[in-house]
Known about the structure:
It is a single chain. The chain has one domain: Cytidine Deaminase, domain 2 (3-Layer(aba) Sandwich), CATH 3.40.140. About 30% of the residues lie in helices and about 35% in strands. The chain contains three helices and eight strands, in the order βαββαβαββββ. The protein has helices spanning about 10-25, 60-70, 90-95; strands at about 5, 30-35, 40-45, 75-85, 100-110, 115-120, 125, 130. The protein has a six-stranded mixed sheet. Strands 1-8 form a two-stranded parallel ribbon. The mean pLDDT is about 95.
Amino acid sequence: MRRARFLTPQFKRILVEARRLAKLNGIEVCGLILDNGLFLELVQTKNKSRHGGGFSFYFSEVRAIRKLAGLCAHEIVGTFHSHPAGLPEPGPGDLRNAVDDSLMLIFDVLGRSARLWHVKDQRARHARFSLI
């Protein structure tokens, strides 16, 4: 797998939003990772989960993003979410619910960083990324 690249302004904006929501009520940010052929884009979605420490997607929102991505020849390759008070490592629930052979970007709100993971067979392997 080639080294993943994310746009710096987009990446920083989502990290700021993750910090804001974590301070407010512990809610996580979440969204989809799209590959446009040049770099990976982060498309933030609404978090269906209303309690801290979890995230889930609205099916209709994901379906609409998938449709638009297809029209633009982009591909959904993974998800992202934040951990308001934990390390940026996937937990058992993250791995259980991940699409096989996908990417998972986890924002560490306290450490103000993120880690990218490649998830295959419910196991996560650290993947490298850079900001452009």
